[in-house]
Amino acid sequence: MREMRAALYARVACATQQTKHAIVSQLEMLRDYAASRGMKIIEEFTDEGPSGLRLDRPGLDRMRGLAERRGIDVLLTCGPDRLARSFALQVLIIEELERCGVRTMFLDRGPADEPLSTLREITGAVAELEPSKVTERDRHGNRHRACCQEMVSAELPFGYGRIPGRESTASHVEIRGGEAAVMRKIFDGRSRLRIHERNDSVDAASRGRGQRDFHSSKQKVE
């Protein structure tokens, strides 16, 4: 019996130090699964950053090209949401691979035998809900950081710098002396400008009233 040739595919939505660990973790699980099934790993494909709602991903494109050349028999990935975030895109990719004689297998779901099976419909719907789950996790995370007196916003105003957290202290912001001095000069200059403008308007109003009072008095005398 011919050894089954496998390709591994792992994806994370953003390229950070934390997500690099997620990629490594996904690949380790896929390698273990392939080894336990006696599969020969032909190539490993990864995408770090591209959205799962897009098809133009470098790693995915290379994997699809290898499948088109009949270079693999099975694609292993951790779950449908790693392959694509949209159910429609999942169906498109899986059916394309099936036409190339490639079977798609998910570690957390099993084989995707029927393109429009109930299993795929359910997992696709769950994958589409994942962005809402991520948003909710971010909201709770930001709330926890705020309760810990950490700076939640990723962007800081000019004049402030972020101090990373340590074991004994949470991350926080501090005033940068040089930038703060620049801001003081800017606002002091604006304040002086507003005072001058206000004085000028008061002087103009006073002159206007003086002229009116003079003409009024002149008319009374005449």
Could you characterize what this model shows?
- With 222 residues, this protein is α/β, with parallel strands linked by helices.
- The chain has a domain at 5-137: 3-Layer(aba) Sandwich (Rossmann fold).
- 55% of the residues lie in helices and 16% in strands.
- It has helices spanning 17-36, 58-68, 80-83, 87-99, 118-147, 177-221; strands at residues 5-12, 40-48, 74-77, 103-106, 110-111, 160-163, 172-175.
- The strands form two sheets. Strands 2-1-3-4-5 form a five-stranded mixed β-sheet, with helices on both faces. A two-stranded antiparallel ribbon has the order 6-7.
- A hairpin with a 3-residue loop joins strand 4 and strand 5.
- The mean pLDDT is 77.
CATH class of the domain at 5-137: Alpha Beta
User: What does the average pLDDT come to?
Assistant: 77
Q: What is the N-to-C order of secondary-structure elements (H for helix, E for strand)?
A: EHEHEHHEEHEEH
The backbone outline, from C-alpha atoms, is: elongated
Oligomeric form: single chain
- The biggest beta sheet, please? 5 strands, mixed
Low-confidence runs of at least 5 consecutive residues: none
Rg, Å, rounded: 33 Å
Helix content percent band: 55-70%
Strand percentage, roughly?
Answer: 15-25%
Q: Count of helical segments?
A: 6
CATH architect. name of the domain at 5-137: 3-Layer(aba) Sandwich
The CATH homologous superfamily of the domain at 5-137 is called: Resolvase, N-terminal catalytic domain
Task: Give, in spatial order, the strands making up the sheet with the most strands.
Answer: 2-1-3-4-5
